[in-house]
């Protein structure tokens, strides 16, 4: 296990960023980061995981009953009807021959529910992915270089569920503040009898969402939570996975492992490693099925909504077994 010097967060972050940097690995113009690992052969390997045709949506709902509480002006989605059946009955829509219809609109932060973090979401000392100046990447016009649309046709391949909560947690759930280490990940991999490697899309279940469903949202969006330890940075880098997602708001353990730091694993993974991170995914139904049949690999299609210039975007991930 990598030692963690809690007294020097800035030094620890800088050292991990240097060790795990992928800057220049795919050329100076790269906009895909670790999605470069998810090539055609990796996608074919994912397709080979389809045996039964069973499909699971890994998305939470997108509605006003969601977890957001206003942190950094994030709100739950607001869904409004523009045309309704009542309008059609009254004949007020202006269509000929009795035609009527319904139409609607949604307002929401792009990271209100199940989503991918794009490569323009986090910076390290003013630098974005691949060493670019943050101000040259994201302006008031959006992410001009690594906007989430660059990943629109990329995130489909072999998914692996690591149900750490079921393997490590005493009741199938991990408590808040539980830091998932490399040892926990490897123990879960061994318990499931799977492999994790280049181009994989890793799904880590902590059980935090199941608890929120049972007890209420409370501080699910931003409060204490189980999550990945900062010490997993090298594992995330060395396995050459294409992306990783959790059933938590923040991906990494909260409170963070340093007293004076905020989301330090994000700071290493996104701008330095180029790793795609998914948050607030729903693995519960999939996890139950994996536990029942003992198969923890599947084809995963998880294309983000290609909002031009966005630094994150909603997704309805589909796991097909």
From TrEMBL:
Q: Which organism is it from?
A: Cryptosporangium phraense
Q: Which residues form the signal peptide?
A: none
- Entry-linked SUPFAM superfamilies: Putative cyclase
Query: What protein name is recorded for this chain?
Result: Cyclase family protein
GO MF, any single term:
arylformamidase activity
What are its GO biological-process terms? L-tryptophan catabolic process to kynurenine
Top-level taxon of the source organism: Bacteria
């Amino acid at each position: 296990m990598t030692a963690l010097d809690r007294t020097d967060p800035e030094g620890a972050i800088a050292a991990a960023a240097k060790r795990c940097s992928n800057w220049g690995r795919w050329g100076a113009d790269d906009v895909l980061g670790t999605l470069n690992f998810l090539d055609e052969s990796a996608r074919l390997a994912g397709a080979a995981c389809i045996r039964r045709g069973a499909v699971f949506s890994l998305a939470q709902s997108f509605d006003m009953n969601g977890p957001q509480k206003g942190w950094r002006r994030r709100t739950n989605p607001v869904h409004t009807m523009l045309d309704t059946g009542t309008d059609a009955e009254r004949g007020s829509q202006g269509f000929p021959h009795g035609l009527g219809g319904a139409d609607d609109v949604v307002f929401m932060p792009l990271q209100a529910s199940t989503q991918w973090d794009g490569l323009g979401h986090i910076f390290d000392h003013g630098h974005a992915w691949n060493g670019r100046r943050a101000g040259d990447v994201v302006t008031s016009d959006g992410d001009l270089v690594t906007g989430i649309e660059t990943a629109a046709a990329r995130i489909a391949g072999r998914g692996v569920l690591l149900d750490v909560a079921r393997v490590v947690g005493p009741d199938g759930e991990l408590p808040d503040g539980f830091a998932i280490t490399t040892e926990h990940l490897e123990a879960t991999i061994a318990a499931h009898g799977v492999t994790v490697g280049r181009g994989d899309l890793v799904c880590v279940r902590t059980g935090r969402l199941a608890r929120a469903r049972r007890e209420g949202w409370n501080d699910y969006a931003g409060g204490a939570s189980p999550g990945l330890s900062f010490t997993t940075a090298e594992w995330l880098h060395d396995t050459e996975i294409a992306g990783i997602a959790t059933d938590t708001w923040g991906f990494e353990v909260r409170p963070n492992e340093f007293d004076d730091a905020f989301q330090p694993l994000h700071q290493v993974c996104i701008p330095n490693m180029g790793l795609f991170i998914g948050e607030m995914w729903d693995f519960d139904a999939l996890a139950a099925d994996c536990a029942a049949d003992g198969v923890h690999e599947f084809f995963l299609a998880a294309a983000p909504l290609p909002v031009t210039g966005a630094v994150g975007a909603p997704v309805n991930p589909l796991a097909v077994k």
